[in-house]
Design goal:
- With 266 residues, the chain is α+β, with helices and mostly antiparallel strands.
- Helices cover 47% and strands 18% of the residues.
- The N terminus and C terminus are likely disordered.
Length: 266
Amino acid sequence: MQDVNKLVRTRGASPLSRYVQILEAVAAARSGLTLTEISQQLDLRTPTVHRLVGSLKSLDLLTNKDGSRSYAIGHRMLLLLHATLSPADYSHLTTSILRDLVGELGETVHLARLNGTIAESVLMVQPEGSNRSFVQPGRELPLYAAASGKAILAFQSPDFIKRYLARPRASFTENTKLSDKELRAELALIRASGIAVCDNELDAGVLSYGHPVRVKGGYVMYSIGVTGLADRFRSTPRDFIHKKLSHAAALLSEKFGDGKQPALRE
């Protein structure tokens, strides 16, 4: 009976349904699926699967897993999935990690998510007794100026970065970097060091650090940032901040399903 049902489900399905069935099958396979495996699971001819998978891959809904012949969920699909998370979801998943970081650094910590062409602050934790914050949930942070934004932008694809840098940019303070040359040099430095800095570039008198957070597939869709008044926060050693942010990012990466925080690379 199950085989009959499968035949009805796939052979009688509309093209759109077949696309959905392929996405469902690949999403359920933790190690990815080859064309042959997809064909066998859905009882579809291999040439048909090849054509459908090619279309999904062209839209970045599927991707080749680690350069192999297996297919996994693509970057665009993951963005859609993470876009469905609510503030309550983020609070449940990450609040304890952010609170621990606040306790270690004594400054406001927040989680930011890539949302189109901005970094959106989705969760914030402040030190006890603090009454001022620059990263309230919902604030839109520019990818070229905020530390949490730069930590995300640096690890996007070259095409994404090229398109983004073609957009107009506004100056927030006298320290805001605007030229392509300056920004590309800074993004390269972030990829090499693993940490982004915003020193009086977005909010006057404010010093912030950001660290990329990878999700399933190794994509950077989030960053974890820490923000404080520059005069006070500048005395905290950068190496110490980097170490604590890196540890928190690895924990967040586990929460978002990747299991580990891969080594940062150019």
